[in-house]
Design brief:
The protein is of the alpha/beta class and 257 residues long. Helices cover 42% and strands 15% of the residues. The chain has an 8-stranded parallel beta barrel with strand order 1-2-3-4-5-6-7-8, surrounded by 6 helices. The protein binds phosphoenolpyruvate. The site of phosphoenolpyruvate has 14 residues, from strand 8.
């Protein structure tokens, strides 16, 4: 973390979990244990049908609501899709874009991810852009090049002045939902290479202002070590974000002066 230049952000990704009723219950429980989050921002990304319930339920807490997906067109004949303006109108502040599950199960390409990033920014929200390598890519030694390509593709056409709103989440695919976490050194190495890619595109001043999260089985017992790395500015958390006590323990690890 380096709060001199950028925000530390802890974001939960609920995936396809919790009903609206369970969303309200989670918020009630969280309220009893959430500390004053002076040193980090907290985001909860929920299924789109629960956004209204979440915005209402988390209203009195310093918790921003995020969406897990968006469609890039403004409006029209796209049955079942949700636009950036629709999310913005509900009070959404962050949108996860390019999560590996969407790339893997729903055919999201780098070009689609880029269109979504541009749509989210145009609507005035912050994209949380997920990038990450497979185990095979790590083992064949192409991680850095692969991640650089994903970052460059996702940011195509994003002007420097909008980069402050962008969050990049480094999520090694082999660590998501597997209980297997990247070591702090692995996370640090890739997050720093992501910052180097941003630096090559936008210069040092912009690069140091961008929040880069780590995601992949972040838990209360490994969060502090991951967050102690200079280029790891927070976490995108799946499983552990579904349990208020675990989520708060990770927030506490980030909420240090
Ligand atoms: C995620 O879904 O973005 C994620 C990091 O999941 P988990 O923490 O469960 O590995």
């Amino acid at each position: 973390m380096n709060r001199r230049y950028r925000k530390t952000i802890i974001a939960g990704n609920w995936k396809m979990n919790k009903t609206a009723t369970e969303t309200r219950q989670f918020a009630e429980e969280l309220k009893t244990m959430l500390p004053k989050t002076k040193w980090c921002d907290v985001v909860v990304c929920v299924p789109s049908v629960n956004i209204s319930a979440a915005v209402k339920a988390f209203k009195d807490m310093r918790v921003a609501i995020g969406a897990e997906n968006v469609y890039y067109e403004k409006s029209g004949a796209f049955t079942g899709e949700v636009s950036a303006d629709m999310l913005k109108d509900l009070g959404v502040k962050y949108v996860i874009v390019g999560h590996s599950e969407r790339r893997q199960y729903f055919g999201e390409t780098d070009s689609i991810v880029n269109k979504k990033v541009l749509a989210v920014l145009e609507a005035g929200m912050s994209p949380i852009i997920c990038v990450g390598e497979s185990l095979e890519q790590r083992e064949t030694g192409v991680t850095t090049e692969w991640i650089a390509l994903q970052v460059k593709s996702a940011l195509a056409g994003v002007p420097a002045e909008k980069m402050r709103k962008c969050v990049i989440a480094y999520e090694p695919i082999w660590a998501i939902g597997t209980g297997r976490t990247a070591t702090a050194e692995q996370a640090a190495e890739v997050c720093s290479s992501i910052r180097a890619t941003i630096r090559s595109l936008y210069g040092a001043r912009v690069a140091r202002s961008v929040t880069i999260q780590y995601g992949g089985s972040m838990k209360p017992d490994n969060a502090a070590e991951l967050l102690a790395q200079g280029d790891v500015d927070g976490g995108l958390i799946g499983g552990a974000a579904l349990k208020p006590d675990q989520f708060v323990a990770i927030i506490n690890a980030a909420n240090q002066e």
